[in-house]
């Protein structure tokens, strides 16, 4: 594995999706979120809401829970679909698989099916645990020709590489490069100093703080990445833009004394929307 220089992500490195005066929803991407098994519906809804708030033209949610809601009361703009219904959509620009997905046979079969599809995927949370547990799923990920993004934290990265968490944390740069090379995809290794690599570049994010150490913030990040891919950014652009804004949103909120204690993932998504609109207006 070739040594690569770590480059810090700067504000002027991020890409803001363009929005013309005559835009319509079909020009800004259709994004689907698949997950939300029993007891974990909130994870999928957080990802779907953040995809919506960061600009996706259409946002779908496929919830696996038996008693899943038929509408998101907070954001009824999100369209609920079954796994079968998603298969028949005319166009889908990106899908997130994993937030609250669980480890059932339905989850495993669904993940296998999506890994075979020719659309960009963002793989998070339980999708990564399933890929680590089943070599056949790992093989499908490696063989994909469509773009793939994986977003592991240190524990998930350790399972994917079959090493310890300590080994991941002792050399995070080496770990993210190994993942990118092994799975031939773009990797976001989350944590203090999130690292991004597509095996050609190694990027370090310097925004963010301890307020992000709460449930759901990773789901929000996955939805943001998918939203930007749906709006036309490539996987590396989408990842560095989402990671930078995700951290900057937390920094802004802490500066307002909304955190670090008790900052919620939902608040991060809303602040990230505010930031991207400020940048859009300034561009």
Per-chain topology:
Layout: E1 6-8, E2 30-35, H1 41-53, E3 58-63, E4 79-80, H2 83-87, E5 94-97, H3 105-115, E6 121-123, H4 126-133, H5 135-143, E7 148-150, H6 154-161, H7 165-170, H8 172-183, E8 186-189, E9 195-197, E10 202-204, H9 217-230, H10 235-255, H11 265-282
Parallel strand pairs: 1-10, 2-3, 2-5, 3-4, 5-6, 6-7, 7-8
Antiparallel strand pairs: 8-9, 9-10
Helix pairs in contact: 1-9, 1-11, 4-5, 4-6, 9-10, 9-11, 10-11
Question: What's a concise summary of this model?
Answer:
This protein has 11 helices and 10 strands. It is an alpha/beta fold.
The total of beta strands comes to 10
H-E string = EEHEEHEHEHHEHHHEEEHHH
Q: What value does the average pLDDT take?
A: 96
Beta-sheet strand percentage? 5-15%
Could you say which structural class the secondary elements and strand pairing correspond to? alpha/beta
Tally of DSSP helical segments: 11
Rg calculated over all Cα atoms:
17 Å
Helix percent reads: 40-55%
Major sheet attributes: 10 strands, mixed
Query: How does the overall form come out from the CA principal axes?
Result: globular
End-to-end separation in angstroms reads 38 Å
| Poorly predicted parts | none
Strand order of the largest sheet: 1-10-9-8-7-6-5-2-3-4
């Amino acid at each position: 594995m070739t040594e690569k220089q770590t480059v810090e992500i700067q504000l002027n490195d991020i890409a803001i999706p363009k929005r013309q005066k005559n835009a319509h929803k079909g020009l800004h991407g259709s994004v689907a979120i698949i997950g939300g098994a029993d007891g974990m519906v909130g994870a999928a809804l957080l990802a779907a809401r953040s995809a919506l708030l960061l600009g996706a033209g259409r946002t779908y949610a496929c919830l696996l829970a038996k008693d899943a809601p038929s509408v998101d009361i907070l954001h009824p703009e999100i369209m609920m679909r079954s796994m079968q219904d998603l298969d028949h959509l005319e166009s889908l620009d990106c899908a997130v698989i994993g937030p609250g997905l669980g480890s059932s046979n339905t989850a495993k079969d669904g993940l296998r099916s999506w890994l075979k599809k020719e659309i960009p995927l963002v793989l998070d949370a339980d999708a990564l645990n399933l890929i680590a547990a089943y070599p056949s799923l790992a093989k499908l990920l490696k063989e994909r020709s469509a773009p793939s993004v994986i977003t592991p934290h240190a524990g998930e990265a350790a399972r994917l590489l079959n090493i310890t968490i300590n080994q991941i944390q002792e050399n995070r740069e080496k770990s993210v490069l190994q993942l990118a090379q092994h799975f031939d995809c773009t990797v976001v290794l989350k944590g203090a100093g999130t690292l991004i690599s597509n095996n050609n570049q190694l990027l370090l994010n310097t925004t963010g703080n301890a307020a992000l150490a709460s449930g759901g913030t990773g789901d929000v990040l996955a939805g943001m990445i998918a939203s930007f891919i749906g709006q036309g950014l490539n996987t590396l652009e989408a990842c560095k833009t989402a990671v930078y804004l995700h951290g900057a949103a937390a920094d802004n909120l802490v500066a307002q004394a909304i955190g670090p204690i008790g900052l919620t993932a939902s608040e991060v998504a809303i602040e990230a929307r505010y930031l991207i609109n400020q940048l859009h207006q300034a561009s």
